[in-house]
Write a structure and sequence with these properties.
Layout lengths: L2 H26 L22 H4 L35 E2 L20 E2 L13 E5 L5 E3 L1 H4 L5 E8 L16 H5 L2 E10 H8 L7 E6 L6 E5 H6 L2 E6 L2 E2 L9 E3 L12 E7 L14 E2 L5 E2 L8 E6 L11 E10 L5 E7 L7 E2 L1 E3 L8 E9 L4 E9 L8 H8 L12 E4 L5 E4 L3
Parallel strand pairs: 3-12
Antiparallel strand pairs: 1-2, 3-4, 5-6, 6-9, 7-8, 7-12, 9-10, 9-11, 13-14, 15-16, 16-20, 17-18, 17-21, 19-20, 21-22, 22-23
Bound molecules: the ligand Nc1nc2c(c(=O)[nH]1)N[C@H]1C(S)=C(S)[C@@H](COP(=O)(O)O)O[C@H]1N2 and molybdenum atom.
């Protein structure tokens, strides 16, 4: 008999056991010195013979495509109601507070669509290169897979990430304040190889990348970037791109704003000047105090955020041994250092970077400390390999005013309360 069938007849004894467990933990109070971990004798749960040890589990192939544990149902992308004009032109957010390491699982990568998810049939997919080339070409997916491939791990951050926080602390959770970022391994063909195949004319200075979805989204990419590290990717973290992420192929523009990473890419037109598309004029430009707008702000600036604890991930213990962790990234290179502050930016302590330190990728940091149980103002501040230091909100506003949405890389403050709860606040 499987565990599931057996469960109903066991409900009573399970409930009694849980009752006992609760009271014995409350009564024990026997802690290992220096931490708040129970003494081995104080937690009877270790001695229980659980159902999963008594009955056979599901056999192989119960889920031909594996899924997370049923106890992880809260680990999902979420949207913000008032940011959603229509589901087709909307955004949802990566649950950063539920993740660790640096790779975003494919099913949790935030989505941003201007015209919904295109359902592209791979056999009917085509990518054209035209314009200032010797020979205009059309590639099928199978054609693309005949060129030398490359793997690289890169973050993709929407330029609007943290945009809602520009004028003040607003959304309670790093999923909402910072969740328009994901980090996966892309497999694809360097754009240079495909452009060389078509043969660039001497006046070829720009490439216009155009999507095959209903929004036909397009952006101008300067040739130096196109020939440097861009690629047409067809795999993310080993498997085919998800439909939401541009199946069967998307443009990868490492370190640059997400809007340029055209999904369902169908055309690359080579030209001698930029196209001044909607997405680089009325959108994705930054209005300054003097009425002028910054344009072509491609690179994503040095940034970091504490993912735990955070408003959606409060601390469950009241004091003692505690892990603070978060993510740091820069569109200009690697992360050289992350500092953490417990007092709203007065004092800074170096955090520990752990895991691979890759170019234009998320980095993971930890700060392990003994929490005295008092309220704290938690902040993280990243420094990248070019020496750029993540600014405070005041510094950002002094430089760029109050009208912007895009490219907010300011330091985030979390107010950790005595209860372990966390709130999004601003300090000056
Ligand atoms: N064709 C097409 N490409 C697109 C978009 C789109 O709507 N259509 N959205 C862009 C924006 S604004 C961002 S931030 C990223 C989001 O990528 P993701 O959905 O994989 O997170 O894709 C970009 N590429
Ligand atoms: Mo975006």
């Amino acid at each position: 008999m499987s565990r599931r069938n057996k469960q109903s007849s066991e409900t009573d004894s399970a409930a009694t056991r849980r009752q006992f467990l609760k009271s014995s933990i409350a009564a024990s109070g026997a802690l290992v010195a220096g931490s708040s971990i129970a003494h081995a004798k104080a937690d009877p749960a270790i001695a229980y013979v659980q159902d999963w040890t008594r009955y056979l589990g599901d056999g192989v192939n119960a889920a031909p495509y594996g899924k997370p544990s049923e106890y992880e149902k809260q680990v999902v992308r979420r949207n913000v109601e008032w940011l959603t004009a229509s589901a087709e032109s909307s955004v949802n957010f990566t649950p950063l507070h539920e993740l660790d390491g640096i790779i975003t699982p494919n099913g949790l990568c935030f989505e941003r669509h201007h015209g919904g998810v295109a359902e592209v049939e791979p056999d009917l997919y085509r990518l054209m290169i035209n314009g200032l080339v010797e020979e205009p070409l059309v590639f099928t997916i199978d054609d693309l897979k005949r060129f030398p491939r490359k793997n690289q791990i890169n973050f993709l951050e929407c330029a609007a990430n943290s945009g809602m926080e520009w004028r003040g602390a607003q959304l309670n959770g790093c999923q909402y304040t910072h969740g328009m970022v994901h980090n996966v391994m892309y497999t694809g063909v360097p754009l240079k190889i495909l452009l060389d195949q078509a043969g660039l004319k001497t006046n070829a200075k720009w490439v216009m990348a155009e999507g095959g979805d209903a929004s036909g989204m397009n952006r101008s990419i300067p040739m130096f970037k196109a020939l440097d590290d861009c690629m047409i990717a067809f795999k993310m973290t080993g498997e085919a791109l998800r439909p939401e992420q541009g199946y069967p192929a998307r443009l990868v523009v490492p370190g640059w704003e997400g809007n340029m990473w055209v999904k369902w890419i169908r055309r690359l037109e080579v030209g001698d000047e930029p196209w001044h598309a909607r997405e680089e004029t009325s959108k994705y430009t930054d209005l300054l105090e003097n009425g002028k707008a910054r344009r072509f702000t491609w690179e994503m600036d040095c940034k970091s955020v504490i993912t735990n604890p955070s408003p959606q991930a409060p601390l469950k213990h009241k004091s003692g041994q505690t892990v603070i962790t978060g993510l740091a990234w820069s569109g200009r290179g690697t992360i050289k250092r992350v500092d953490v502050s417990l007092d709203g930016g007065r004092n800074w302590i170096p955090a520990r970077l752990d895991g691979p330190s890759l170019d234009k990728s998320l980095h993971r940091f930890y700060y392990d400390f003994d929490w005295n149980g008092e309220p704290l103002l938690l902040q993280s501040r990243a420094v990248d390999s070019t020496g750029q230091i993540q600014p405070t909100k005041t510094e950002l506003r002094n430089a760029r005013g109050y009208n912007s949405i895009y490219h907010n890389n300011a330091i985030q403050t979390w107010h950790l309360k005595k209860t372990g709860e966390v709130e999004n606040v601003e300090v000056s």
